[in-house]
Structures are given as structure tokens and as C-alpha cells.
Amino acid sequence: MVASDQTVGNGRSPLQEAERQFQRLGDQLRVVMDGCDCAGEVSLVQARSCLLGSSRGARQRDVVWCEVIRRARMHEEWMVGAIGLAMPGLRMSARRVCRGLAPAAVDDVESAILAGFVTAMRQINPEWTRLAWRLRSRAQRAGFQERRRETRQPTVNDQVSESAAPPIPWGHPDLLLAEAVRAGVLHRGDAQLIAESRLEKATLVAIAADLDVSYKTLHKRRERAEARLVAAIADGSISARSSTAATIADAAGYRTG
């Protein structure tokens, strides 16, 4: 049983419980890797370490993930293994999505992230490229959907005073990017590029290598996307608190006024 399907009542968060299950099974689940320092048959625990440090980029990761997806659709223990293999990315997503939430809400959001990942594993086309990124993105979107539900739930203060502003995290940069995608200001890939390079502090050099494009091409793509985003904020096409706009605009070298 994967962690998202059970209640964690032992003090561990859903992601911590998923990692515990992975450590229990990961050495028994083995994949064949080629063209890197870990060439040959290795455990999923070893594969995770190898892929994190691999200079082979997306191609090597896609080969491994294609096989893991195929097996996870047939065997539950491999779904546990897939969650563990993706854990570094899922943790990063959880930190972003859960920022500012109460502990109980964090558990709900982590569970949603895991459930979203499992759903993505069952639905994604394994022939696509950048599988790890696509899986993580879908899991993260599921987490944000749960976050919005959590922050829209009525509180005691809401019941006492109807004029009180609802606790919706308008100032969250990720929600600003999501709004920009919905409004057609940004393509989804451009929003992800801004999030990874500006909010997660991933370097453009690393992202360009992962995408198999030149640094110059990616830099121009981000520059154009950020210009559209800042213009949309300035003319009111999308809403954002000034602090949120500044988070991205300052990083991009723009001023919002």
C-alpha cells in the first residue's frame, strides 16, 4: 500500500512515511542503468543517487523512468519505488506548496501531492521526454489544488466577522504564475522555467542541459516570459500583492512601479 492510501498516525508526515517504505523496498527493486557511473544493474536507492548526480541529463533519467513507470503499473511495490525515486523533487514541491500552512494542512497537501503523483504515473505517456519533471509538475499541481481548498475553509474569525478577508494566499509567487498561465500571459513551460530558475534557484545552465537547448536560447525565452508577466501585473491583467510581484520582478531585474 502506498503512503497516499493510508493514514499516517506514527508522527511521520506522508512524505516521510513514503520515504520509509522506499528505504524498506528500494534495495530489492533493481533497474539497469547505462552510460553513467552507475552502469549495470543497481537498486532504486542507488539509482536515485546516481540520477541526482548524473551529468547525462534528461535522456538517462527518461530511460530509467520509462522502465519504472512500466513496472509500477503492474506491481504495487514498484509504485512505492517510483515515489521514492521521485522523492527529492516531491520534497522540493512540498516545501513550495506548503509554505505558511498549519501542520495539519501540510499533511493534507503532502497526501494530495502523493496521490497526484500516483495518478500521473498511471496516466502519463512513458514515451514522452522529461518524465521526472512532468510527473513532479502534475503532483505539484495536485498539491496546489489541495492548498487552495485548505486556505478557503472557513475559520472561527471568518464566522465571527463576514468582512474579514478570507485566508487565500494571494501573495504566493507560485499562485501568481498559475494565474498567469490561466490568463494566457504565460505558457505552462515558461511558468515552470521562471519557478525553477527564480524561486527554486536552479541555474539556467543546469536547466538548459536538462532540456538539451542552449543557454542563450533559454535565457531569451525566460526574458521574454518575464517581460510579459511584469507587463500583465502592471496593467492589472493579473492580480498580485506588491510583495509577490517584487519577488519575481526584482529577481528578473524589472520594476513594477
UniProtKB/TrEMBL annotation:
<protein>
    <recommendedName>
        <fullName>DNA-directed RNA polymerase specialized sigma24 family protein</fullName>
    </recommendedName>
</protein>
<feature type="compositionally biased region" description="Polar residues">
    <location>
        <begin position="153"/>
        <end position="162"/>
    </location>
</feature>
<feature type="region of interest" description="Disordered">
    <location>
        <begin position="143"/>
        <end position="166"/>
    </location>
</feature>
